[in-house]
Amino acid sequence: MKRVLHNKPEPYRGGYEMHVDCKYAHEYTFTDPYCKSTIVAGETRQECFKQLRDRGWIIHRDRTTTCPDCAKKV
Questions:
Q1: Helices (H), 7-58
Q2: What is the pTM of this model?
Q3: Hey, which of 3-7, 35-39, 61-65 has the most confident mean pLDDT?
Q4: Which of 5, 25, 29, 57 is the residue whose CA sits 20 to 30 A from 74?
Q5: Closest C-alpha to 20, from 35, 2, 5
Q6: What is the pLDDT of residues 21-51, one digit of tens each?
Q7: What 3-state DSSP class applies to 68?
Q8: Contacts 24+ apart (CB under 8 A), 13-19
Q9: How confident is the model at residue 54 (pLDDT cuts 50, 70, 90)?
Q10: Collapsing DSSP states into helix, strand and coil, what is residue 6?
Q11: How far is CA 3 from CA 6, 38, 42, in A?
Q12: 69, exposed or middle or buried, with CB in 10 Å at 0-12, 13-18, 19+?
């Protein structure tokens, strides 16, 4: 069987993808446009942390996070 190369092969993706949730309980309503969780991706963990901090999230030493809405109230 002859092997044929793909026209535009996709390189493998490396890095991190973080799914974070707020550590405080929220009552979700359908009128609330803000989700209390988010997903970030980057080449390194520090790059992901920077994206979260830029969005207003707080990252705690116990591996939990606080959303921007709760961060304003604390």
A1: 45-54
A2: 0.68
A3: 61-65
A4: 29
A5: 35
A6: 888 876 655 555 455 788 999 988 999 999 9
A7: helix
A8: 14/43, 15/41, 15/42, 15/43, 15/44, 15/47, 16/41, 16/42, 16/43, 16/44, 16/45, 16/47, 16/48, 17/41, 17/48, 18/45, 18/48, 18/52
A9: very high
A10: coil
A11: 10, 42, 33
A12: middle
Let me know: does 71 contact 36? Beta carbons within 8 Å. Answer: no
Looking up tokens 């026209």 gives 7
Which residue is it, tokens 């604390």? 74
Question: What are 41's two structure tokens?
Answer: 């991706």
In the chain the first and final C-alpha atoms are separated, in Å, by: 65
What residue ranges do the domains of the chain occupy? 16-73
